[in-house]
Design brief:
Layout lengths: L3 H12 L5 H8 L3 H13 L19 E9 L4 H13 L3 E6 L6 E7 L2 H12 L5 E8 L13
Helix pairs in contact: 2-3
Length: about 150
């Protein structure tokens, strides 16, 4: 069970994962050792699943961000597993979800350019034996970056 101090700690770490136990302690009115123990407990209990750096896609040359809705032609455990393996091997696919509604999957992708997106669609995704069709959307502008989870 999380108390208000835990939720404040989680909120602070989502904004800056580099906070030291000393800094967290000052923010939460705890000693550094208490703040560090709370962080360790939240990690051990699975509330904190890891730490990562956020990179600027444009500085990395990733000019195209898009979403691809994938519709399978056949549904079964083998087809789903095969499609999931393909998704897992492609670095351009940064997130993937199974969906309710018309599409079976929603893929979030980053590509160098439109040509690279075209190759991903026509040489990788569409040739997959389980895929019947795709619908792609190119992001024009991102109004809000991936935000911290509400705590």
């Amino acid at each position: 069970m999380l108390d208000s101090t835990d939720t404040r700690l989680l909120s602070a770490l989502q904004k800056d994962a580099h906070l030291t136990a000393h800094q967290l302690g000052e923010m939460l009115n705890l000693s550094p050792s208490q703040a560090g123990r709370r962080r360790q407990r939240l990690e051990a209990e699975g509330y904190i699943t890891g730490y990562a750096a956020r990179l600027d896609p444009l500085k990395l040359g990733l000019q195209v961000q898009g979403f691809i809705q994938v519709h399978l032609g056949t549904h079964g455990p083998e087809q789903s597993a095969s499609f999931a393996r393909m998704v897992d091997t492609r670095p351009e696919i940064t997130s993937a979800w199974t969906m309710t509604g018309e599409a079976d999957y929603l893929l979030h992708v980053y590509c160098d350019d439109l040509s690279a997106l075209n190759c991903l669609l026509h040489q990788v995704i569409l040739p997959h034996p389980a895929v019947a069709r795709v619908h792609s959307q190119i992001v024009m502008d991102q109004l809000k970056r991936d935000a911290p989870l509400p705590t």
